Amino acid sequence: MLKIVPYYPSLFRRLVTIYGSMSKQTEIFEFADADLVRKLCGPNHANLALIEDAFGVYIEAPGNAVHINGDTPSRARAGELIKEIYQRLERGWPCGISDIRALIKAMGKGKVKAAAVDAIIPFPRRSPIVPKTPRQEKFIHAMRDETICFGVGPAGTGKTFLATAYGASLLARGEVARFIACRPAVEAGERLGFLPGDLNEKVDPYMQPIWDALHMVLGRDEVDRRRAAGDIEVAPLAFMRGRTLSDAFVVIDEAQNATIPQMKMVLTRLGERAKYAVTGDPSQSDLPHSVTSGLAHALKILKGIRGIEQIVFEASDVVRHPLVGRIVNAYEKDAKRL
Q: What is the reported pLDDT for 112?
């Protein structure tokens, strides 16, 4: 009698990799710190599984060594990645699933190159934020070197998170007195009065991506303390009118939803010892079709001005779930057909 056995593609590929590699040579990499090797492997060896699937090798990690079994080219590429991950862990850099995916993706375009030390976003009591793509590295450099930096491109490229993390790092290290973030509240028509609760309760749900990033890099207790002290402010863009933003790092998020007058208003709030990071996706404006996006307009008229930098992210910079990059590509292709 024929018995039907369920087919699990990922498990099947893994078994093929293991048995197919048994006739191939093994290369052994020995490291000084067994604890770092365990971190390199990831929870339940999840990091090693990603590397095995990417390069068609079989990896074991007994003690402080990593054994890679496979053909010569595959062993070489997997070995290069293993050594890079270990070196990053030695520096105290995070190497989770998303970091491993980004490194594998980078290897598809050539040799893995570690991010420059001056592109790392440091924090006093937690692991630093490490850029996952060359454009993320350029974005961090631009925020450091220029007064106003535009970071534009599709969803999932880390624009808002990096801008928030960079500003929070400056605040934590005492390099600025305030962190300010704002977004144009287009969906609420900048009129939030009909929502229940006090001002913070009305505004906070719309600003949640900023709060999520702040909680991730500073911790909820530190954010609450600094918010109560006035060091952290997150508010709708319209609330910036009539102010001078000095000694602060300012994030203008979802800037594609700002009108031209709103963008001019907030950019001209710039005060002494202040820096701006302006983030958004010009292709995702929620403004009425008859209204020109202030972000698109600013990118055009401010190009080439000294002290202002523009970093344009692409679908290849997406660092969320791998499927997000394919979704972005599909929409971009569809837009070109219209």
A: 61
